[in-house]
Amino acid sequence: MPGATSPTNVHRTIDAIWRIEAAKVIAALSRMVRDVGLAEDLAQDALVAALEQWPETGVPDKPGAWLMSVGKRRAIDHFRRQERLERKVSEIGRDLEGRQDHADDLDDAIDDDIGDDLLRLIFTACHPVLSTEARVALTLRLLGGLTTDEIARAFLVSEPTMAQRIVRAKRTLTKNRVEFELPHGEDRAARLTSVFEVVYLIFNEGYSATSGADWIRPALCEDALRLGRILVGLVPDESEAHGLVSLMELQASRLRARTGPDGEPILLLEQNRARWDQLLIRRGLDALERAKALPGPSGPYGLQAAIAACHARAVTAEDTDWIRIAALYAALAQVWPTPVVELNRAVALGMAFGPAAGLELVNSLLDEPALAKYHLLPSVRGDLLLKLGRADEARAEFARAAELTANERERTLLLRRAAAAGTGDVASRAG
C-alpha cells in the first residue's frame, strides 16, 4: 500500500491496523520475552515507529509483519542493553549477536504457532490471579487493541484510574510469576471458563450498560464479538466457544432496535423486529448448530444461545415459544444455578404459564443476598404484579428498581413505568 496520502488518513489506517494486529504482535513478543508487560511496551514502540514513518513512506504492503519485525528488533535491542542477549539466545537456539540474517531467522521462529501464542495471551490476560475488573481491562488492552482512554471511557472511570488498574494487573502477573503458557487438563478448563466470563462480561456491558447516560455501547459488543471469534478459531473443538459466539451474535442482532431516535430504551417485546440484523441472526444460528454438533451436553453459553435463538426465530413477539424458553431456563439452572438465572426463569414462567407462576418464583428470591441491590428483581416483580392487577404494589417496585439502577436511561424508563402503573398498560416488558 505504499503511496502518498494525507497524514490524517494514514493515522486512521494505522489505528485500524493496530486494532487488528496488536494482539498477534503482543502475543508473539510475549513468547519471546516471557513478560506480558514488556511485550506490550515493545509493541507500543513499534506502533510509535509506524506513526512516525508511515506518513512519510506510506503504509507497507504487509503492515502486520512490519509491526512484528520492528517489535522483535526492539526486543533484541532490549536484551543487548540488559546484557542478557547470550542467555536469551541460548533459550531460543539462535545466535543473534551482530548478524541481521540471524535476526531474520528469529522472525521465522517467532512467527510459528501464532494461534498458540494468542491463546497463551488470552489465558494470561484472564488469569484467575487477577480480579474480574483487572481481567477485563487487561483483555481489552492486550487483545482488543484499545487505548487506556477508550477503556476508561467505556467503563466510566478516569483514565488515570484505568491506567493504574492495568499497571497493577501486569505487576500482579509478574509478582505471581504467571507463566506465558497453555494450561492443560482441569486447569485449562477452569481458565477457559474465566476467559469466556470476561468476554461475555465485556459484551454485556455493551449490550446493557450498568451505568452512565447510554443504555447500550455497541463498540464494546463489537470488541467482545471480535474476541469471541478469535477464541473459536483457537479452540474450535470447544462447544462453549461456539455457544458464546452464537449468544453474542444473536443478542447483537437486536442492537439497532434496542434504542429509539433519542437513545431511549426499547425493550424486547416492543422492538421493531424488522430492524433486527438478519446476517447476525444467521451467523448466530449457524454457530449454535456447530456447538450442538460437538460432543457433550450444552453448557451455560450454549443454553443461553438456544434461548436467544427462540427469540430470533419468532417473527413477532406473540410467536415466541415461551414454554420452550422456560424449559431451557430450567436446564440452565441445573448447570448454572445462580439467582439471576432463576430470576430470568421467573420471567419465562410468567410469560408461558401466567404471571402468578412467575411471581411465586420471584417471591422465593426476595431474600437472596446476591439480589439485594439488583434492580431487575423489583423490576420483574413490578411487571408481574402489574399483570395481576396489583398496581400500587407494582408502582412501589418500579420506584425501588429506579433507585437501584445506576443507568440514567433505565432509571427514566422505570420511573415512567411507575407513573404509568394502574393505567391499564400491562404489556410485558421483558428486556
TrEMBL record:
Keywords: DNA-binding, Sigma factor, Transcription, Transcription regulation
Domain RNA polymerase sigma-70 region, first and last residues per copy: 24-84
Superkingdom of the organism of origin: Bacteria
Record keyword Transcription regulation present: yes
Domain called RNA polymerase sigma factor 70 region 4 type: residue spans: 122-173
A molecular-function term among this protein's GO annotations: DNA binding
Every DUF6596 domain range: 191-291
GO biological process: DNA-templated transcription initiation; response to stress
Pfam families: DUF6596, Sigma70_r2, Sigma70_r4_2
PANTHER family: BLL0085 PROTEIN (PTHR47756:SF1), BLL6612 PROTEIN-RELATED (PTHR47756)
NCBIfam families assigned to the protein according to its UniProt record, in alphabetical order: sigma70-ECF
Family, similarity comment: Belongs to the sigma-70 factor family. ECF subfamily.
Name recorded for this polypeptide: RNA polymerase sigma factor
Organism of derivation: Phytoactinopolyspora alkaliphila
